[in-house]
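Example S7 (structure tokens).
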């Protein structure tokens, strides 16, 4: 295990606070770009990815896996539909490999496949005020995730893609390689902070965004945990679909991508890439990528780990490690600047702090924030057309509310494990299949709580396991009734309304 410091926590990488708190740009050298154009371009690409490319309109995009005939991942890509075909944006070094893979299967289709990786450069502009900064400087912006528009950054033509590799608000900008010096000079002239590659890596790993190093040979799409973003289970045939469908039928994979934090006592230590991850005497995985995490004050790694090997104590190269939920939000559910705020109140599940906020007019002011470790909410389908809700007595509002089962991330476990646990405790149901369906901030004006939505299917009934004092009753309702109750006011709980309507919208699209 490499050491970032012999005396304490490693220094925060240059530009990290700008990426997390304000806005910064960072160069992404070597990123791949493959252009597929021609009359058959969209249907051709659709035959080689887990994504439903034919359902995209011009200017829209999505994530998708490209796999070989055995269903093993070649690349995880951003797939962008354009006026004359498809642009495929992939991680560093993968452009030539993916272009050759597609060309191998190109027989008679009316398409041209071109690896543009050397001719195009990519930068990321990210941070909570990224959209405002770009708009204020004249850039047109896409409105939806992986939407993309042709615009200009200063005098430099660019394709701007809404993308979140290192935080909830971010954009990728693709420009001609020859224009990179001009773009960097324009950013500097406008006073836009530049973040280091180390800062980007730290934020990317904290967000759980996989890089090529995190997807070694023989990785299967469902092991990466991005089913809701990158896999369409209702599209037509594609290369590798048989393996994806078989895993979906089984309802589980043998490995999963997780984040592992090192022992806080060795705060400056960063796991070495390729380091062995052991549970007991067994090797259960190897580190894919790693960085110092300012959120946690420890080393943080992404790795594919055998599912059955995560129950016992874990080590990385012999040093203690633990799995932390993704995206990482820190032990107090916050970012580095808020962690340093003055603590006004601390309880078992949340903390109230006073922090200094930078205002848009250049002034600063005090603000009180509630720091929360985050939570999970589960939409359980008892049948394809009925769901289980819970009736919970809420002292804060003096009434019983009809809600989805949910709970706080107050222990060391993965998000999926937390969702399965809360579902079983509150409803008694055990899920045969559980998949992520999105995430949202609960009340971002004062509360830093990110809630992660899961859909549970193939349920098996069992006894509830309520905490002392909890008053929760289950209620199975028809799916159409649940949607109607969100719209007519019978359901008043925000997370329940958001969860049900988000899944209803996706069901409508599929």
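Recovered sequence:
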């Amino acid at each position: 295990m490499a050491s970032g410091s012999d005396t304490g926590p490693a220094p925060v990488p240059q530009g990290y606070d700008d990426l997390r708190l304000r806005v910064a740009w960072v160069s992404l050298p070597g990123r791949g770009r493959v252009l597929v154009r021609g009359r058959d371009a969209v249907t051709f690409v659709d035959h080689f990815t887990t994504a439903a490319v034919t359902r995209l309109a011009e200017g829209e995009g999505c994530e998708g896996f490209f796999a070989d005939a055995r269903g093993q991942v070649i690349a995880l890509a951003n797939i962008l539909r354009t006026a004359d075909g498809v642009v495929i944006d992939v991680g560093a070094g993968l452009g030539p490999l993916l272009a050759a893979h597609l060309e191998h299967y190109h027989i008679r289709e009316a398409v041209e496949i071109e690896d543009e990786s050397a001719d195009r450069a990519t930068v990321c502009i990210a941070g909570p005020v990224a959209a405002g900064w770009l708009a204020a400087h004249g850039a047109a912006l896409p409105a939806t995730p992986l939407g993309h528009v042709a615009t200009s950054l200063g005098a430099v033509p660019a394709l701007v893609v809404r993308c979140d590799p290192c935080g909830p608000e971010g954009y990728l900008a693709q420009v001609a390689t020859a224009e990179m010096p001009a773009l960097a000079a324009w950013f500097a002239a406008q006073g836009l902070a530049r973040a280091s590659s180390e800062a980007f890596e730290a934020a990317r790993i904290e967000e759980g965004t996989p890089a090529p190093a995190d997807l070694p040979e023989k990785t299967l799409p469902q092991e990466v945990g991005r089913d809701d973003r990158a896999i369409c289970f209702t599209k037509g045939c594609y290369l590798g679909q048989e393996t994806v469908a078989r895993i979906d039928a089984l309802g589980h994979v043998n490995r999963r991508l997780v984040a592992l934090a090192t022992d806080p006592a060795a705060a400056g230590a960063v796991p070495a890439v390729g380091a062995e991850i052991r549970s007991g005497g067994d090797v259960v995985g190897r580190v894919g990528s790693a960085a110092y995490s300012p959120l946690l004050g420890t080393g943080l790694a992404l790795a594919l780990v055998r599912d059955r090997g995560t129950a016992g104590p874990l080590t990385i190269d012999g040093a203690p490690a633990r799995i932390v939920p993704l995206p990482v939000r820190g032990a107090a559910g916050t970012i580095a600047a808020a962690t340093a705020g003055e603590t006004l109140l601390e309880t078992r599940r949340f903390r109230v702090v006073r922090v200094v906020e930078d205002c848009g007019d250049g002034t600063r002011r005090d603000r009180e924030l509630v720091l929360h470790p985050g939570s999970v909410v589960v939409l359980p389908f008892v049948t394809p057309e009925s769901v289980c809700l819970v009736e919970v007595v809420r002292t804060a509002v003096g009434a019983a509310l009809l809600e989805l089962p949910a709970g706080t991330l107050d222990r060391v476990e993965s998000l999926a494990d937390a969702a399965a646990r809360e579902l079983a405790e509150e409803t008694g149901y055990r899920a045969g299949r559980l998949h992520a369906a999105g995430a949202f901030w609960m009340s971002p004006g004062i509360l830093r709580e990110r809630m992660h939505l899961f859909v549970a299917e193939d349920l098996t009934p069992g006894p509830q396991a309520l905490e002392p004092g909890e008053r929760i009753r289950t209620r199975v309702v028809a799916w159409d009734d649940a949607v109607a109750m969100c719209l007519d006011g019978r359901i008043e709980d925000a997370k329940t309304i958001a969860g049900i309507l988000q899944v209803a919208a996706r069901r409508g699209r599929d």
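Notes on this example. Residues 444 and 450 are 9 Å apart (CA to CA).
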